[in-house]
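Hi Y.,

Following your request, here is the sequence exactly as I used it, all 152 residues.
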Amino acid sequence: MSAQGLPSVLAFERYDPTDASLDWLRERGVNVIFGNALWEMPFKRFTEDELIAKAHGCVALMGASGTRITRRVIQALPDLRYISKYGIGVDSIDIDAVTDCSFSLDLHVSTSGNLSTSCAAAPSNGSRGAVPAALAAIAALGLVAARRRRQG
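Below is the corresponding structure, written out as tokens. Let me know if you'd prefer a different format.
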């Protein structure tokens, strides 16, 4: 959460040069923390320490497959509830740590704007499809998590 009480999201590897989809989130009351832009050269991925520092207090991490989401990162971010990754596979995310964590944490992976989970779907709109798909996944996963809590 931000100092203003808004949920905070770190877009650790940004895909959309216009940042229009991140602006969409901000317009809806989300504190978006802008990470590194994939189109800026030389591109630099976050180290574990940098990611932990930048994502402190965030409820969600969104980005591509290059930055590693390790057990140490997950354990250092107790507010984290969602990881949304754009790309193929989950080799950059410690899946054992996701399933072992003591708090509710949902993982979502999308490829080419098509969600690979059964809880949501969002159309790709060209180069800007990745972030809207991730946002749709975060919203959908939040609804799924809320339903699970209510059911038991």
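The domain at 8-151 is CATH 3.40.50.720 (Rossmann fold).

Thanks again,
Q.
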